[in-house]
Structures are given as C-alpha cells and as structure tokens.
Amino acid sequence: LAVRLLLPAFNGLAEKNIALNFWNRPELLLGIIGFILLTGLLAGVYPAFVLSGFQPIKALKSNDPNAGLAGGARLRNVLVTGQFVISTALIVGALVTWRQMHFIENKNLGFDRDQVLVVTDALMLGDKAEVFKSEVLALPTVESGTISSYLPTNDYHNDQAYFKDKIFNPENGVSLNDWWVDADYLKTMRIRLLEGRNFDPTSPADSNALLINEQAARVLGFSDPLDREIYTLKDVHTGEVESFRIIGVVEDFHFQSLRDEIAPLIMHRGNSRTSISFRLRTDDVSTAVAQVGAIWKKTAPMLPFNYQFMDEQFDQQYRAERRAGTLVLYFAVLAIAIACLGLFGLAAFTAQRRTKEIGIRKILGASVTSVVAMLSKDFLKLVLLALLIAAPVAWYFMEKWLQNFAYHIQISWWIFALAGAAAVVVAFATVAAQSIRAALANPVNSLRSE
In angstroms, what CA-CA distances link 399 with 10, 97, 258, 318, 408? Predict the structure, then answer.
C-alpha cells in the first residue's frame, strides 16, 4: 500500500517511470509473496532456535531468568548496531552531498549566469539575427546581448590543434578549445579581461585576432602572451598554416562542469549563431521575456520562440547529483526510522527483563534520572560504536564520490560530529520513552509476584 501511494512521488523525484502492475507482471506478485514468506520464516526460526536450546537444569540453578536460553543478547546488539551504522553513514552521505551542491551553487565561476536569457534556435533567423539582437538591445529591460553557439553552460565545445611555430610539426601541437564569439561576449557574460583588449567589431585586422584564457597561456608556455602569434594547419596536403595574433587574456572561467579542470581556451571573433544571449537589467523577468518574444514573433513570425535561462542550463549539469543527494536524504530518514524500531524493541525487552531490578533500586532510593541513565547508557554505547564503524566507511565512499569533481569540498570533522549527534539524540529519545516509563512504574507492582 505504501509503495502504491508513494510511487508517483518517487517517479517524480528519481525521474523514472516505474509502474506497479501485478497483472502484467505476475512474477512481481510471486516475488513479493515469496519475500513475505521468507521474512516470516527467518523471523520465526530465530526464537524457535533459541527456545530449542533451553536448558532447564541451568535455569533452575541460576538466578538469571534467561540463563537456560541459548545466547541472543549479542545478536540483538549486533543487529541494532548494524542498523545505526547504515543510518549514520547515510546521514554523512546526505550532509556531504548537500555541502558539495552548496559549494557548486556558490562558487565563483568566472562568469555571471544570473539574469541571462538564452534564445535558442537563433540559427533559423539567418541574416536577421543581427537585426533581432539590435531591436532587443533597444529594450529598457535588456542590458547587453551576444550571438554565439558557445556558452559556459552548454556542452557545445570544439577542440583544435595549434602550434607555436610556423613550421607544422604534429609533436609540438597543443589542443585548445576553439570558440567563435562576437565583441559583446565578454560584456554579456561578465568575463574579466586581465590584460590586452577586447575585439573591435569595426577592425578588419581582428578577423585573425585571439582572446585566450590564463590556462591557454600556461599550456602554450607564454609568460607574456600579448601580440604573440600561434598557428593552425590550414591545408593538410601542403602543410600550409594560418597565423593568429593574441590581443587579450581573460580570467579563467568554468566553461565545463566542475568535474573537470579548467581547460585551455581561445576565442575568435566570428559568426556562430546557434543562440543569442541577453543580460537582463530588471527583476521583472516575465515582462522582459514577453518583450523579447514579441520582437521574435515580429522578426520570424513562422518560427517558435524557444528560450532558457542560463542558470537553468547550469543546474541541469548537476541534476543527477542533486537528485542522488535528495534520495540519500530520504533513505537516511527511512534507515533511522527502521533503526529506531529495532532500538525501541530492544529497549522494551531490556526494560521488561529488569523490571524487578528497577523496583528494588527505587525502593533503595534511586531517582528516576538515575534509572533512565542506567537503562540508556548501554544503548548509547551501541550508537557510539556504530558511529566509530560508520565514520571511516562513510568517509571512504564519499571521498571516492568527491573525486569525480576536480573542484570539491574537503570532508570536515564536524560532518561526522553532526551525524553522530543526530544519531545519539534520536536513539536517546527512542530509549528514553521506555526508560522513563519503567522508572516511573510503582515498585510495589514490580515486586508483588515475589
């Protein structure tokens, strides 16, 4: 019933389309029935095994009411500890995932993805792209705009081999990301120019000019890259090369996922018209989008107006990680709930076994607080043991997960402290309910059978 009710929510969270249909999948129904029977069998075998080992003579000679039974306390403790190991590890996993996502969302990427409207399918405008851009820039809600297929938040990249020498030599080639942008690209993306100058749209000489990032300068080995020339192969048959002059160096920015190191990048001035990006200067985004859409309809009445915001494109790069983090959090809550059920049962069992002991202690003057502490400390020891086991296991797996990111957080000690504190608080609250009830019981009723 719970699966039936929660399945739509789970499908939405996991972006799956799982259906629960017993009529089309009879093996699923048989599997569930088999699982129920197996669980019931295992649950019944254990007490049967314990009772079958009952030794009457040993029980009669001992004052311990459980002396005649085969062991069991150790197994119960192992099961509860195992449950809290899983719970604590999942709490650590959820905290690490949340911190990494927070780190990604707040990291300085070297460009500003907020308030950028990306109009897609701009290639269909053809020669009208510049006209469309000019009319949109006349709107008071728009600050700047750029025409380019290459955006820091998409996967449309292009690698090209370049050389520092005019003579073509494959061994001296360097692979660089090769972008074509216009003169308004840096302004719209708010990418910082460290030295040199930007493209001049009126200068024919800039057709062979380049902007490079800091990483490209390092890869090329240029300590002073301005006005240096690099070359690319123009004709593979003749070995003819084409030269380009570096006119500016931009600050490194993350144009790939944070899973990867910043790669070397060069930018040409040229036509690349897959999308047109506009930086908005207003918080009234819906009005700005409507105005841009109206100009699109006027420019290309037969074409649909498709757009996306750059921050949405950025979020899509990490959708899988964010979804995994949410799932880990939910499973952590579920694991804690299951662990608390086991701990609650163990606490109730222990309190019942020690009913007469508690009654005698109260008659001799023990306070409710001391009785609760006596009953709780053994369980808290199990939780602390679970934390000691879970900490290195969780650290190992989360550290391996973080290695998927070239830029990531360091796992801090307080994450384990917070996870342990959460487990201890939940465990104590679970145990305290039984402990307080046992401590408040009338000792006369506890001892009357004696």
Answer: 27, 11, 16, 18, 10
In which region does residue 271 sit, left (phi positive, over 0), alpha (psi from -120 to 50) or beta (all else)? Answer: beta
| Tokens read off for 140 | 């008071």
Separation of alpha carbons 357 and 40, rounded Å:
34
Spatial contact of 217 and 249, defined as CB atoms under 8 Å apart? yes
pLDDT in tens, 217-254: 999 999 999 999 999 987 777 777 889 999 999 999 99
Under 8 Å CB-to-CB from 127, ≥6 apart: which residues? none
Give me 269's structure tokens. Answer: 């001035």
C-alpha–C-alpha distance, residues 321 and 316, integer Å: 10
pLDDT per residue over 123-182, tens digit each? Answer: 889 889 999 999 999 999 999 999 998 999 887 778 888 988 887 777 778 899 999 999
pTM, rounded to two decimals: 0.79
> Are 87 and 335 within 8 A, CB to CB?
yes
Single out the residue of 374, 373, 423, 416 nearest to residue 398, CA to CA: 416
Type of residue at 49: F
Of 331, 343, 392, the closest CA to residue 84 belongs to 343
Cα separation of 347 and 250, whole Å?
64
Q: Could you please report the per-residue DSSP string of 264-315?
A: PEEEEES---S-EEEEE--S-HHHHHHHHHHHHHHH-TTS---EEEHHHHHH
Give the β-pairing of 209-213 and 193-196: unpaired
* Under 8 Å between Cβ of 121 and 429: no
Distances from the Cα of 229 to the Cα of 170, 214, 240, 242, 243, angstroms: 17, 16, 15, 10, 6
64 burial (CB, 10 Å; 0-12 / 13-18 / 19+) is exposed
Residue 55 has φ and ψ, to the nearest 5°, of -120, 100
| 93 three-class SS | helix
CA distance 69 to 48: 11
Q: Tokens standing for 51?
A: 């009772």
For residue 9, the tally of other CB atoms under 10 A from its CB is 10
Residues paired with residue 65 on neighbouring β-strands, in sequence order: none
Start-end of H helices in 354-404: 355-363, 368-402
Structure tokens, 298: 């006027």
Which 3 state secondary structure label does DSSP give 177?
A: strand
How, if at all, do strands 209-213 and 174-181 pair? unpaired
